[in-house]
Amino acid sequence: MLRTVIIDDEDHIRDSLVKLLARHCPQIAVAATANGVATGKKAIAEFHPDLVLLDIQMNDGTGFDLLQSFSPIDFKVIFVTAYDQFALQAFRFSAVDYLLKPVNPGQLVAAIDHAALLIRDQFNMQMNALYENLRSVARQDKKIILKTTEQIHLLDLKSIVSCESDSCYTTVHTMDSEHIMVAKTLKEYEEMLSGCGFYRVHKSFLINLAHIKRFDKQDGGYIVLTNDQKIPVASRKREEMLELLERMAE
Question: Topology of 155-249 in CATH?
Answer without folding.
Answer: OB fold (Dihydrolipoamide Acetyltransferase, E2P) (2.40.50)
